[in-house]
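From the thread on structure requests for the teaching lab: each student submitted one protein with a one-line request. Submission from student K.M.:

"Model Thioesterase family protein from Leifsonia virtsii, tokens only."
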Amino acid sequence: MHMIFRTMLHAIISRFGPRLGRWDVARTRFRVLPTDLDILKHMNNGVYLSIADIGRFDLLQRNGVWAIFKRRGWYPVVASETISFRKSLELWQPFIVESRILGFDEKAVYVEQRFTVDGEIYTQAFIRGRFLKRGGGIVTIEELLDAVGPSPTDVAVPEWLLEWGADAALPSTRAEAPSVWSE
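Reply posted by the TA:
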């Protein structure tokens, strides 16, 4: 329940926060709360993904893309994500989530997010996201770039991340999905 309040708070902060260019890094400030902790008294691994959602929303709100999506009836969804942990975040510890768009493949957008403390990376996540239309259907990368403008020439997804995206993607239909568990 606390995540909804944190989300609403950051929606307000993002609305009035400094504007960003489309391809800039968003730096979103947080603090570890008691409700973020697991039984080992550090931030629960699942909470990182929820906070990453808020960081991506902050990025889209402050770089103006969210307003474009709202007008067009589009919304983002996570297709796949991977996260690596280096150090634990502890109770009351302040941290910053740095979010940036890395680039695209033929179907999806890749975002990198880093959880940092005093510039040191504690956790790093990569998200492969798609955009859907409220009326049904998928927003193509061409439609997306037409709406938000072309990407800079230095925006590129590392090859290993593209391979991960392809490997992590689930089949489009149930018939294509192999069953590895006995039923």
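TA comment: The chain is about 30% helix and 30% strand. Helices lie at 2-16, 45-62, 65-72, 141-148, 159-168.
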